[in-house]
Amino acid sequence: AITAEGKFTWKGWDWKEMSGTGKLRELQISKTGYNLRLRGPVGISAVEGIMESASGLLEGEDSSLAFRFRGQVDGKEINNFLKGDLSVKVLEFLTPLIEEARGRMHLDLSLTGEVGNAVFRGGLGMSEGSLRLHGLEEPVDSLEARLEVAGSRVTIRSLNGQLGGGSITARGGLDLYLNKPPRFAIDLTGTGNRIKFPFVTFAEVSDASLNFSGDAPPYLFSGTARFKKVMMRNNFDLQGQKSLRNAKYLPEKVAGAKSFYE
């Protein structure tokens, strides 16, 4: 929810030269019990097409995030920053694959350039993270991560966690943009994981090498895994099945729902 007020003027149809003042009175992002909201009103001014805000603060569970933005109204000469702590629960907003998230992140990010050629700088760290993923009974726990941001590139310097009593690690990264979805190229490895997923009652993974990649949704999740043990207990009935259908346990994006970027 966003509530704002202001008075801005410009000559004729040339809104790119607008001037005026206003206030951002309310900004709230909510999902499954998590609320991130603006602490108080934030002043906004525009002078000959350059809009600028005073510093603001977003607060919520495990979250206190300072921000300020500046830039031309046509998307050029951007100069923004975000700095502070943020709950890992914000990841639930990005994809239905993440059903539940816990933990804390620390951000120190700046954004300059323009919409079509944005330049990011800074870093992100995660501690005591936990993710429950759609289709897996076991959560990914004890997540510790350090990411470096330079230009459009986000590089994973370290990312480690636990899944089903075994370890998982990630390397690679992604490219961020303001005018299109991110590009992913992330390699995941798992060792000694004991997991359950649809149609499989129990599986013990010896080692796994997986990849999450793509330029836009739907992204591709692929790879290979070696199993020490697999137990399956399920009744299959294919009578009357005339065509393939999306499995119910797949993420909503795969099953047909639109993603955060569409």
Account of the protein in words:
This protein has 262 residues and is an all-beta fold. The chain contains one helix and 17 strands. It has a 17-stranded antiparallel beta sheet that branches. The longest helix is centred in the C-terminal third of the chain and has 4 residues, at 252-255. It is elongated and about 70 Å long. The relative contact order is 0.09. Mean pLDDT is 88; it is low at 254-262.
Radius of gyration: 22 Å
Helix proportion range: under 10%
- In round numbers, the mean pLDDT is 88
Beta content comes to over 45%
User: Number of helical segments?
Assistant: 1
- The backbone outline, from C-alpha atoms, is elongated
Structural class: mainly beta
Return the string of H and E elements. EEEEEEEEEEEEEEEEEH
Low-confidence stretches: 254-262
Which descriptors would you attach to this protein?
17 strands, 262 residues, mainly beta, disordered C terminus
Topology summary:
Layout: E1 2-9, E2 19-31, E3 34-38, E4 42-47, E5 50-53, E6 56-60, E7 63-68, E8 70-72, E9 78-87, E10 98-114, E11 117-133, E12 140-151, E13 153-163, E14 166-175, E15 183-197, E16 200-214, E17 220-231, H1 252-255
Outline:
2% of the residues lie in helices and 65% in strands.
